[in-house]
Amino acid sequence: MSVSTAETAASGAKWTVAAMIARQVGRLGFVVVLARMLGPTEFAVAAAATIYITFTAVLLETGLASGIVQKDVLRKQDEGATFWTMTGIAVLLSGLTVLLAVPVSDFLGIERLAPVLAVLAIGPLLKGFTVVASARLQRELRFRVLGLGEVVAVLMGAGLGIAAAMMGASYWALVVQQVATDLIVLAIWLVAAGLSSFRADREGFRHVWRFGVPVMVSQGIGYATRSADNVIISRFLGETALSFYMVPYRIMLVPVGVLGTVANRVAFPIISRIQDDKARIASIYLAMTRLIAAIAVPAMVAAAVLAPELIETVFGPEWLPAVPVLIALAATGIFDSLTTIGGSVFMGLGRADMTFRWSWIPMVVTLPAFFAGLPWGVVGVAAAYSLATMVLVPFRIMDMGRVTGFTLVDWLRALWPPTAATAIAAAAGWLAAFGVRQAGLPVPLGLVAGSVVIGAGYLLVLRLISAAAFTEIMTAGRLLARGKLAGVSE
């Protein structure tokens, strides 16, 4: 890939960053407002509905359409085949949602969920019409349009959802927020990308089934694995327990959602275009890993160390049972963030087989772990999730290294400076928050004091223990903020 092409792709990084920050802030902000307004019992309906919403997003938003981005020479028939396949799957998924709304609600023990699912069945149809346009924009490296579309849709959807909640819509506010967001992003991206080609042929469908379908199935299995904990908790521990699990779970997803999605959206088309240059791909992957670690590790450790202050300040005292869950899930948030761009490496190299492998392997390990943690309640399930994730990470990294040419030692070397700096800074931050508690000062002050100490201490310690890592990370952050990914990976 030429330098100019790389710079064009990389210039979209700042738009992707803005979009992901807006997406996470908008959605998490909406969850915070809804959780505070409804309380743990009523919020359980929204929490259960979120499982379905995220499942359809994971299943439809990347899977089949990834073939449009990855293919060297894209024909109109390939695009048309993807559109018709996606439309058929979306219609099937919507129909099944309506048919299974009541049985699923009964299984989870949340009867109020059934009508919510029936209305949310419109979501797959809207996403089905959106994904081809999104993939085309991504292939053309038009990240600005993608980013602006998401920013506008997420913020407007969150605003409408909050307005509905304030008018007494209760958990139905989630439906308002989700449907509004899907409609707005559909309109913006279709205007930008135009209608999809409706032409299709046998070769186009073969490409969809050879590349896109395995990726979609892999993502579906992966999400089903990651969501099994929510289903198990709702089924065996009750809807209130699900609420106390889902709030920390959403916090855990913030670094994965922001950092992972930014890296994947920018890296996937670049890796697809340089798929024969393994050394370059390894360099890009390790550079992104260093930058993700520099943000995700201190952020998640800070969330765990300051969990009591964070939960009480943001969500309210009635949510304090979620504190140990957040602490237990912190490791999962870190390792999921660090490994999330592996999917882009496998897909960019056309290795759908590797993507599929790393969808079912976690299922074999984590599903039994969830059940093993059940006797200790939601905290036990959360701890089991983190332990299973930690066991799998080395094997996933070694598999990735085999197809790109780096080693597990290379990966660990990229992680040690931010990890060591975080450990020292987090200890100081905990002491600061503890001092505030002992002095009887307001809880939010402890959160602020601990956060400031951890943030400042992290940068200071990182500079002292590894000036080279500090300079590289700060330089990489500035380059990414300016949209110059090419410079980061050199």
Topology:
Elements: H1 3-10, H2 13-61, H3 66-70, H4 76-108, H5 113-120, H6 122-139, H7 143-166, H8 172-193, H9 202-237, H10 239-273, H11 278-305, H12 307-314, H13 323-339, H14 342-348, H15 352-373, H16 377-404, H17 408-438, H18 443-465, H19 467-481, H20 485-488
Helix pairs in contact: 2-5, 2-6, 2-7, 2-8, 2-9, 2-10, 4-5, 4-6, 4-9, 6-8, 7-8, 9-10, 9-15, 10-11, 10-13, 10-14, 10-16, 11-13, 11-17, 12-18, 13-16, 15-16, 17-18, 18-19
Query: How confident is the prediction overall: mean pLDDT?
Result: 83
Major sheet details: none
Order of helices and strands: HHHHHHHHHHHHHHHHHHHH
Helix content: over 70%
Oligomer: single chain
In short:
By secondary structure, this protein is mainly alpha-helical. It is built from 20 helices and no strands.
Would you write up a description of this structure?
The chain is mainly alpha-helical. Helix content is 86%, strand content 0%. The protein has 20 helices and no strands. The chain has helices at 3-10, 13-61, 66-70, 76-108, 113-120, 122-139, 143-166, 172-193, 202-237, 239-273, 278-305, 307-314, 323-339, 342-348, 352-373, 377-404, 408-438, 443-465, 467-481, 485-488. Helix 2 packs across helix 6, helix 4 (76-108) runs antiparallel to helix 6 (122-139) and helix 10 (239-273) runs parallel beside helix 16 (377-404). The longest helix has 49 residues, at 13-61.
